[in-house]
């Protein structure tokens, strides 16, 4: 009986303990939060934009002048305070404002397809992954396929890395939104490491509102991208190499060069010196070895070479965010706030306004709130949440395409389709069977000429064809005049056909095109008085750099 009583007491005690434990587990635990006053948010967000402007304007004269070598100290331009206003025309800034405009007009839930339509309708010049992605969009290849390596030969280029600053500046302490916006806007032109690069940059800005510790900012942002991607490996290397040699950035530069430029394993799907990993390393080089000194941060990122205006722009943007505009030295504050950023509707005050508007929306969406302090000033109360990275994708071993195409209704919304651009370049002519490689489309400059249209064969058997039907006058001599060029490392065959019959076959290469260009004249007098189909074919030869370059396509009546 005694033993039964003891057993009963023990059971009751254990039951009570279990009830307490259940009650403790069931009680709602307060979610950790961070607080950021509206005044501090505005000050740091403004500084982030100013930092980008300072970095790109300072580094602009050195852009791609130093490839795979450290720029000498004498190559660094002298900073003049008024230089900051040169940044209003820089693509490092106005491209990302395209994404802000889309968010402003359509809201945080805007579809990736609408984002693609907006990007397709931009009229500013683009290069590398941006140009490839936009060209795909204009051809009806909808996102996410616009950045897929099947259609885009530069998926790991730096493009979204230099355009993702906005994603952290409108999401202070909320790095998941840098991930989210990467999936929405970064996928328009980049894939794999190319997209992760921008998500990482955005996450650095998000953390920069709350700490001055550069290593902590980098480590925190690292959690926003897949740990197994090469970009994350580069970030870990940079932290390790810095800690091994905290006072010798040039030694770390040599390690970067050996691994991320000379090792073929890290050049897969790379487009040379525009690859995001090496340029991302140079952003971190400035941030780490600059040790929070503004000039050192910018100059080190610049002297690392390659894209030496974009990299100091990203580094300075993050650093300036940690400092705040009010605490910047006067030499970096000579900002004229009146001009509009090129190709955007935004002046600097309008940019600040739209960023704050979007930040408030994101805060609400994240379950945060706005309180007022003892003085009545607004304070952002921001939930602390760890980011969930995007899934791992490898640009050199990509997953399947989504087989995503714009509908006819969506194509009607795209003012600048590939075909419309070509017809603007060569009125009256049409184009078909143009392949994806070698950045086809209209280029402002190429090979010493302006306004050059690039084509590429569809495949090894099918040339890209430019065509039109034309009624030739009976009483005049009609001459077809073409100015065509070739890539320095390749050649192709020009075919001129009339009603399906080849009347000219001419190789376009180093032996036939002086300084890369040649002018071809074709007499069409034999067809006077007739309506004929004229076709110009960029026909492949040995399938190496087969792009055709067209500076003039004209029919002249004499």
Task: Give me some keywords for this one.
558 residues, alpha+beta, ADP-ribosylglycohydrolase fold, Jelly Rolls, 2 domains, five-stranded antiparallel sheet, 17 helices, 39% helix, 16% strand, disordered N terminus
Structure description:
This protein is of the alpha+beta class and 558 residues long. It has 2 domains: 33-383, ADP-ribosylation/Crystallin J1 (ADP-ribosylglycohydrolase fold, Orthogonal Bundle), CATH 1.10.4080; 417-557, Sandwich (Jelly Rolls), CATH 2.60.120. 39% of the residues lie in helices and 16% in strands. It has 17 helices and 13 strands. The chain has helices spanning 2-26, 38-59, 91-106, 112-120, 128-138, 165-169, 176-184, 193-208, 214-222, 230-244, 249-260, 276-290, 294-303, 310-323, 348-365, 408-413, 418-425; strands spanning 33-37, 369-372, 378-383, 430-432, 441-446, 449-455, 464-471, 478-485, 492-498, 501-508, 517-523, 531-539, 548-557. The strands form 3 sheets. A 5-stranded antiparallel beta sheet has the order 4-7-12-9-10. Helix 7 runs antiparallel to helix 8, helix 12 (276-290) packs antiparallel against helix 13 (294-303) and helix 13 (294-303) runs antiparallel to helix 14. The longest helix is centred in the first third of the chain and has 25 residues, at 2-26. It is elongated, with a radius of gyration of 28 Å.
């Amino acid at each position: 009986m005694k033993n039964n009583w003891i057993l009963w007491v023990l059971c009751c005690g254990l039951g009570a303990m279990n009830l307490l434990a259940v009650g403790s587990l069931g009680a709602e635990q307060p979610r950790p939060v961070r607080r950021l006053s509206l005044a501090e948010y505005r000050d740091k967000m403004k500084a982030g934009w100013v930092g980008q402007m300072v970095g790109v304007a300072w580094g602009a004269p050195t852009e791609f002048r130093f490839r795979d070598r450290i720029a000498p100290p004498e190559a660094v331009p002298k900073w003049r305070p008024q230089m900051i206003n040169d940044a209003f025309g820089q693509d490092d800034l106005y491209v990302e404002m395209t994404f802000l405009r889309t968010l402003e007009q359509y809201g945080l839930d805007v579809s990736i397809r609408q984002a693609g339509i907006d990007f397709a309708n931009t009229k500013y010049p683009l290069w590398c992954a941006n140009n490839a992605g936009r060209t795909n969009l204009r051809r009806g290849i909808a996102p996410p396929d616009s950045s897929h390596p099947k259609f885009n030969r530069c998926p790991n280029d730096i493009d979204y890395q230099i355009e993702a600053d906005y994603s952290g500046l409108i999401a202070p302490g909320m790095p998941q939104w840098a991930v989210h916006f990467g999936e929405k806007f970064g996928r328009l032109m980049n894939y794999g490491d190319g997209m992760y690069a921008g998500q990482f940059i955005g996450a650095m800005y998000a953390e920069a509102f709350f700490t001055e510790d550069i290593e902590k900012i980098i480590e925190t942002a690292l959690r926003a991208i897949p740990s197994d991607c090469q970009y994350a490996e580069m970030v870990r290397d940079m932290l390790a190499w810095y800690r091994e040699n905290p006072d010798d950035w040039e030694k770390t530069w040599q390690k970067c060069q050996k691994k991320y430029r000379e090792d073929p394993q890290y050049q897969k799907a790379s487009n040379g010196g525009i690859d995001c990993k090496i340029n991302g390393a140079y952003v971190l080089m400035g941030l780490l070895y600059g040790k929070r000194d503004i000039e050192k941060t910018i100059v080190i990122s610049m002297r690392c070479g390659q894209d030496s205006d974009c990299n100091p722009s990203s580094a300075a943007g993050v650093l300036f965010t940690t400092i705040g505009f009010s605490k910047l030295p006067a030499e970096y504050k000579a900002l004229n706030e009146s001009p509009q950023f090129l190709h955007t509707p935004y002046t600097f005050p309008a940019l600040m306004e739209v960023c704050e508007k979007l930040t408030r929306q994101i805060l609400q969406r994240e379950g945060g709130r706005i309180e007022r302090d003892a003085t009545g000033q607004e304070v952002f109360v921001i939930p602390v949440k760890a980011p969930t990275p995007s899934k791992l994708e490898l640009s050199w071993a990509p997953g399947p395409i989504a087989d995503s195409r714009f509908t006819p209704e969506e194509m009607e919304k795209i003012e600048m389709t590939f075909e419309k651009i070509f017809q603007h370049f060569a009125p009256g002519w049409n184009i078909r069977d143009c392949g994806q490689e070698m950045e086809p489309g209209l280029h402002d400059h190429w090979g010493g000429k302006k306004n050059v249209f690039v084509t590429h064969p569809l495949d090894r058997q099918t040339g890209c064809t430019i065509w039109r039907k034309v009624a030739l006058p009976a009483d005049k001599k009609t001459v077809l005049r073409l100015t065509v060029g070739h890539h320095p490392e390749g050649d192709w065959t020009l075919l001129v056909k009339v009603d399906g019959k080849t009347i000219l076959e001419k190789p376009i290469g180093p032996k036939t095109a002086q300084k890369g260009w040649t002018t071809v004249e074709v007499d069409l007098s034999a067809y006077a008085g007739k309506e004929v189909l004229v076709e110009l074919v960029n026909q492949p030869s040995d399938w190496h750099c087969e792009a055709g370059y067209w500076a003039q396509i004209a029919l002249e009546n004499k």
